């Protein structure tokens, strides 16, 4: 069986240059271990959990795999810890409406403590990940130099995640080992520049390995970005419906059913743009856009609804981030099968390109 390698494989000591993205609510020890065991780099999402749950997931990974582990942590610059810090005088109309609708369905909406907002907890999570010898740390929401220095002192590699080429420069200045550039096609927080253009611009100046993300779900796409100059790919949506994914059952079903136009990029979840599957939560804001509070207040007022819906497995009221490649995810499969299929498809696409494209002259 043929495989693919790039220098990124040596950097992270992995067999194939396919990295599974950190995904809150989806990517924990089980999925990350399955991906790493299959030769890629598995990543545990550590933004939304508490330090205790993050430690539990890292332990789970270490029980299931002796391969390299990546942990995705957010280091937000603006980090209020609760509503009291940001003065929300009155809840926006759509939130009151969504509370009412959930109550009618018998779901109680309780106040929530948002881990993603705590820089102190982020530091604790980093300490925990390093104490378990995490081989890589992915930095979402900025790549501070002190994080890179702390990781390098322990021999841990650092990956910066960005959606704009100008942010690549700060990732390089901080001393990170690699950068993920995510095009607007991607699920979750995402910018407004398409991957093809973002990648081209980034490759024109960067001196560190570039990893492509956003909308990539098959091997032909992997072949395309590797040919363009990326050294690897960072895939989220492709693993959403995998057997090892922790996504709610109804979320997985929605992913399998969704067409390519099922996603929308909206600031309603937290004030920053997130690409998600369209649902009632999003539609409730139609005509009420002027009531949005902006980041981080919007996040604080929407969290209790999203989390109550998530616990109740109610797909109409949760946040279901997904990329534009979702229309090609049509089955619930194991992560190992997905990895093997991606590698086969990439090899086939590269070989077919060699046969189809003639260099004249
Ligand atoms: C369900 C979901 C949750 C996500 N959560 C996070 C997260 O917690 N941290 C993060 O850095 N990125 C997160 N992302 C973005 C991914 O890291 C990645 O950039 C994105 O999935 C790539 O695009 P794709 O989904 O089209 O493959 C999330 C994406 C999805 C689909």
Question: Would you mind describing this structure in some detail?
Answer:
The protein folds into two domains: 7-79 and 118-262 and 326-356, TIM Barrel (Alpha-Beta Barrel), CATH 3.20.20; 84-114 and 268-321, no CATH class. It has 361 residues and is an alpha/beta fold. The two termini are 34 Å apart. The protein is 40% helix and 13% strand. 50% of the residues are buried. Strand 8, helix 10 (219-228) and strand 9 (232-235) form a beta-alpha-beta unit. An eight-stranded parallel β-sheet has the order 1-9-8-6-5-4-3-2. A three-stranded antiparallel β-sheet has the order 7-11-10, with no helix packed on it. Residues 21-24, 26, 45, 47, 72, 140, 161, 182, 185-188, 213-216, 234-237, 321-323, 325 line the site of flavin mononucleotide (FMN). The site of flavin mononucleotide has 27 residues, from strand 9.
Question: Mind telling me the CATH superfamily name of the largest domain?
Answer: Aldolase class I
Number of alpha- plus pi-helical segments? 14
Oligomer type:
single chain
Q: Give unreliable regions as ranges.
A: none
Distance between the termini: 34 Å
Please indicate the percent range of residues in DSSP E strands (runs of 2 or more): 5-15%
| Number of extended strands | 11
Query: Structural class of the secondary elements?
Result: alpha/beta
CATH architecture level-2 label of the largest domain = Alpha-Beta Barrel
The small-molecule ligands in this entry are: flavin mononucleotide
> Strand order of the main beta sheet, please?
1-9-8-6-5-4-3-2
The CATH topology of the largest domain is TIM Barrel
Q: Element order, helices and strands?
A: HEHEHEHHHEHEHEEHEHEHEEHHH
Kindly provide the radius of gyration, computed on alpha-carbon positions and rounded to a whole number of angstroms: 20 Å
When the domains are counted, the total is 2
Shape: globular
* Major sheet characteristics: 8 strands, parallel
What helical percentage do the residues reach? 40-55%
Question: If you average the pLDDT, what whole number results?
Answer: 94
What is the C-level CATH assignment of the largest domain? Alpha Beta
């Amino acid at each position: 069986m043929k495989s693919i390698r790039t220098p990124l494989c040596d950097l992270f000591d992995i067999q194939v240059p396919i990295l599974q993205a950190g995904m809150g609510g989806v990517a924990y020890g089980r999925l990350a271990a399955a991906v790493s065991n299959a030769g890629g780099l598995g990543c545990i999402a550590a933004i939304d959990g508490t330090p205790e749950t993050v430690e539990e997931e890292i332990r789970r990974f270490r029980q299931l795999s002796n391969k390299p582990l990546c942990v995705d942590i957010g280091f937000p610059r603006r980090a209020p810890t609760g509503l009291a810090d940001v003065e929300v005088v009155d809840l926006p109309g759509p939130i009151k409406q969504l509370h009412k609708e959930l109550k009618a369905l018998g779901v109680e909406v309780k106040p929530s403590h948002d881990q993603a907002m705590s820089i102190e907890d982020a530091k604790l999570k980093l300490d925990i990940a390093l104490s378990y010898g995490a081989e890589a740390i992915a930095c979402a929401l900025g790549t501070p130099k002190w994080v890179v220095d702390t990781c390098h002192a322990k021999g841990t590699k650092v990956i910066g995640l960005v959606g704009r080429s100008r942010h690549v420069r700060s990732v390089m200045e901080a001393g990170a080992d690699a950068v993920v550039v995510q095009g607007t096609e991607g699920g979750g927080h995402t910018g407004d520049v398409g991957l093809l253009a973002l990648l081209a611009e980034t490759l024109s100046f960067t001196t560190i390995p570039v990893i492509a993300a956003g909308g990539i779900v098959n091997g032909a796409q992997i072949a395309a970005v590797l040919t363009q100059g990326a050294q690897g790919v960072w895939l989220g949506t492709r693993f959403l419906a995998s057997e090892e994914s922790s996504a709610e059952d109804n979320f997985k079903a929605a992913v399998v059913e969704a067409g390519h136009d099922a996603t929308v990029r909206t600031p309603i979840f937290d004030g920053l743009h997130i690409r998600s599957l369209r649902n009632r939560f999003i539609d409730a804001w139609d005509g009420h856009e002027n009531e949005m509070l902006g980041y981080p207040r919007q996040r604080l007022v929407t969290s209790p609804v999203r989390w109550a819906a998530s616990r109740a497995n109610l797909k109409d009221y949760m946040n279901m981030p997904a990329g534009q490649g979702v229309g090609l995810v049509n089955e619930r499969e194991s992560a190992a099968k997905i990895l093997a299929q991606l590698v086969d498809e990439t090899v086939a696409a590269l070989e077919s390109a060699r046969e189809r494209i003639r260099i004249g002259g």
